[in-house]
Amino acid sequence: MPIILQTERRNWRTRLFVGGMYAVLGVGAVTMIYPFLLMVSGSAKSRLDANELNVVPRYLHDEDMLYRKYTEAKYNEDLLLYLMTTGDPARSFRAVDPPPPAKPGLLADWENFLEAGELPSSFFAMGFGPTLEGKIIQENERSFRNYIKASCENDLETFRARFQEPIENWFFLKLSQERLTDRTYQVSPTPLMDSFYEFKAAFPPEDRIYMSCDGAYRQFIHLRAGDERDDATLSSDHGTALWETYVRDVMHPQFVRLAPAARSSWAELLEKNHGTINTLNDLYGSRYAAFAEVPFPEDRVRAGAALTDYLLFLADRDRLDPMHISIDTPEIRWRAFLDDQYPDVSRAGAAHGREYASFDTIPMPQRESDRAFCEVNKGALRAQFLTRNFAMVFDYILIYGRGITNTIIYCSLAVLLALLVNPLAAYALSRYKLPSQYKVLLFLIATMAFPAVVTMIPNFLLLRDLGMLNTFAALLLPGMANGYAIFLLKGFFDSLPRELYEAAEIDGAGEWQKFWVITMNCSKPILAVIALGAFTGAYSNFMYAFILCQDRDMWTLMVWLYQLQQFSSQGVVFASLLVAAVPTLVVFVLCQNVIIRGIVVPTEK
């Protein structure tokens, strides 16, 4: 019988009341759904837009925001690297604006210059690589890990033997950021770094961050002399005091070249530092007959004794004449390329749509190249930004540990035991009128009055004394029997017709047959509710799983996701929460008809 009669529904007060109820329910639904949608949106965000409270990430419909996301990701969330490389005066990635569209001539010249292949791998850093804080694993960092895994046939022991790197798991095969304009940065001469430079040499141009020594020089003179000239370049300032100080003491040695005339001074320094040629040979691993035969080191990126001596020689103002010093940078090679292509700078300016005072002032068009790539690959970039946080979550739970396997075993056993122990107890209370059954029910229901944390310490001590820690038994035994589930099952079993059991007894059925064939067969809806409760309890069990099973090999998915959240960005945390919610949602959607019957049918009866 309806609460409101049909005749009453026509009254305007009734309609107003019903409309008000729907409005309140609608507002309540929005207050529940909106935070969830914010979390879904946040799972596809990064540091750039994490604080934006929008349901749809702005980069999906705003091209300027997409460009900012692209620059943030390509330059590894390192604003200083972006400013130094591009010369953009932006104060943050949120303030980055796309440059004006470049003329085809400029982009064509830049593409031809890169295709010439004259730049070594140490002249550019890996874009979409390790970030400053390391809270997100980007595309190329993951690609390098897959490259190493393939070379080792996905065998960790082979990796450890070949590269002498004692990593615990493939997930922890990571790299630190390259600081290729920093004099103190030296690459360790290890097989892993050799493989990294082989991998980096095959990078596509759009994933490379070409080092701007002019940008680093501008930062230096700004800090040193307070000069904020945007047009300062190493070429135009050649020979000045600031230029000499920067090249001798600050610039990375890979960009510094010394004239053959400085070889005699170099030999003097080596003799002073090492005394005898045999000492130098032992240190260098070489076979030189005299100090005059020792050349300048060709590899000025990897750490070694020769590089240390080279740095000392650069800083020695008494021995090294500044006239013997020159530089070789990506900008200088780019300008030399243009000088060969065009008879004068005005022709180059006309082709690029720019006005250049001289070839020495022409910057590398990395911003313009970034914009052109971003415009052509909008769809792929949006898909990448939507899924990269989830990719890190799946990398972690699939590669590292046995979280998924343990969770499947734990949840399966928890459901199986819940569907065996609880129905047996409820069947005994329902079928046999025990004198103290109501006291037993009261005892079982009384367990619901105590929070689970109250029993946590006693359970831990008991299981420890029994020697069951770090086993599935420790996870299963404390929750195997559930007072509320037994209470629900008894009520449902009481509603089953007694004639069924009488007919079964006449046919000669035993107690097990009556329980299994009649009771369990007629109780599928309530059993589905019990199974869902057991699955949800086991799947979401974090605290017990963490305390009772401290061995990583026994950690469940919830514990692994908690560990991931400790060193991840906000977007990865949101993505992990969504991934954790999917199994429960899928189970409920697939079983909702049976579950609803289990909730509604007992109420109707």
Q: Strand content of the residues, in percent?
A: under 5%
CATH architecture of the domain at 401-604: Orthogonal Bundle
- How widely separated are the two ends? 16 Å
CATH topology label of the domain at 401-604: MetI-like fold
Number of helices: 27
Radius of gyration over alpha carbons? 35 Å
Q: State the strand order across the main sheet.
A: 1-2
Q: Globular, elongated, flat, extended or rod-shaped: what is the shape?
A: elongated
Largest sheet: 2 strands, antiparallel
Helix coverage percent of residues?
A: 55-70%
Q: Which CATH class of the domain at 401-604 is shown?
A: Mainly Alpha
Please count the beta strands (DSSP E, at least 2 residues each).
4
Quick description:
With 605 residues, the protein is an all-alpha fold. The chain contains 27 helices and four strands.
